[in-house]
Every structure is written in structure tokens, then in C-alpha cells.
């Protein structure tokens, strides 16, 4: 239950601006300082009940400043704990994360790379091209490629490696 004691409210309002400056100096943010000072008033008001302690009665303004300071220091500690736990740069990383679809620039680059790869594969001897396509695009094992082409597994491996090296060299020359 919130009490509405005009004496307490008047005391708070008389010192509100200086309390805001005090809190802002500790937390470094005016909006957070506003929240702290409001919370301090609520605590001050509840502490000023009929069983108020001697400190509140003798030095109500000092007590109010102490509440603001304690809240501000607690807030800074919590902020430091959160900063240690949070991933540095997470906001930036989230903004830079890939969208559901690639950008127009990356689409153009990918299409150009695909055309260059198709041209490089067209330059390969038939057996090498088939071995490379079966291995890289079809997911076939070397023994399946060897059986399909009627060659040894070692030769199937060599054809795949030769095809990869040719395509890699062709793509690097184009860049």
C-alpha cells in the first residue's frame, strides 16, 4: 500500500533534481537515474512509516541520498555481472547474420562462380568429369565410381583429384 504523506512527498520533491544529478553521476545515464530516484522515493516512503528508525527521523535527506546511492551501486554491479555474461558484440553479430535469402551482390557473385565452374568442368576429359560429378554432386564412393567406369579404385581417386585441382585452378585464375 502506498502512503501519501505530503511531508515526505514535499521533502522528496525539494531534493529530486539534486538526487537525479547524484544518481546520474553514479550510473552515467539520465534515464536509469530517473528510475533509481523513483525507486528511492518508494523505498523512502515505505521506510517512513510509523516505526521509522532514528536515522530517518534525524537525517531524512541523508537517508534519501543513501537509498539512491545503494540502488545506483547495486545497479552498476548488476550491469557489470550482465556484461561479463553477455556475448560481446552479439547485437552486431545478430544484425550481420545471414538473412533468409542472399543479397543481390552475393547472388551475382555466386552465379558468376557457377558459370566458371561449369566452364572448367566442360574442359575436363569425359571420364574425369563423370568421376568428379559422381563423387562431389552424387555423393558416390570411390568404389562405386570405379565400378561404374570400369576402372580401379586408385584410378577413380586420381580422376577425382585431377578434376578438383583443374576446377580449383580455373576458379582461382578467374578471381
How many DSSP H or I helices? Answer: 9
Report low-confidence residues grouped into runs of 5 or more: none
- Summing up helix and strand content along with how strands pair, one would put the structural category as mainly alpha
Order of helices and strands: HHHHHHHHH
Q: Tell me about the largest β-sheet.
A: none
End-to-end C-alpha gap: 73 Å
Radius of gyration: 36 Å
Q: What percent strand?
A: under 5%
Assembly of the depicted chains: single chain
Number of strands: 0
Report the average pLDDT across residues.
Answer: 84
Keywords:
175 residues; mainly alpha; 79% helix
Describe the structure.
This protein has helices at 6-27, 30-47, 54-58, 60-85, 90-96, 104-122, 126-137, 142-149, 153-174. It has 175 residues and is mostly helical. The protein starts with 5 loop residues before the first helix and ends with a helix. The model has no long low-confidence stretch (mean pLDDT 84). It is 79% helix and 0% strand.
Amino acid at each position: 500500500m502506498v502512503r501519501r504523506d505530503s511531508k515526505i512527498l514535499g521533502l522528496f520533491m525539494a531534493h529530486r533534481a539534486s538526487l537525479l544529478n547524484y544518481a546520474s553521476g553514479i550510473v552515467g545515464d539520465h534515464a536509469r537515474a530517473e528510475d533509481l530516484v523513483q525507486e528511492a522515493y518508494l523505498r523512502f516512503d515505505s521506510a517512513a512509516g510509523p516505526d521509522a528508525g532514528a536515522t530517518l527521523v534525524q537525517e531524512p535527506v541523508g537517508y534519501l541520498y543513501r537509498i539512491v546511492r545503494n540502488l545506483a551501486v547495486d545497479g552498476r554491479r548488476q550491469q557489470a555481472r550482465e556484461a561479463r555474461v553477455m556475448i560481446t558484440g552479439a547485437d552486431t553479430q545478430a544484425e550481420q547474420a545471414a538473412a533468409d535469402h542472399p543479397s543481390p551482390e552475393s547472388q551475382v557473385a555466386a552465379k558468376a562462380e557457377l558459370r566458371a565452374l561449369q566452364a572448367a568442368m566442360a574442359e575436363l576429359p569425359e571420364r574425369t568429369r563423370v568421376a568428379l560429378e559422381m563423387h562431389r554432386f552424387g555423393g558416390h564412393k570411390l568404389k562405386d565410381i570405379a565400378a561404374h567406369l570400369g576402372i580401379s579404385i586408385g584410378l577413380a581417386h586420381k580422376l577425382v583429384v585431377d578434376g578438383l585441382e583443374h576446377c580449383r585452378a580455373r576458379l582461382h585464375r578467374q578471381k
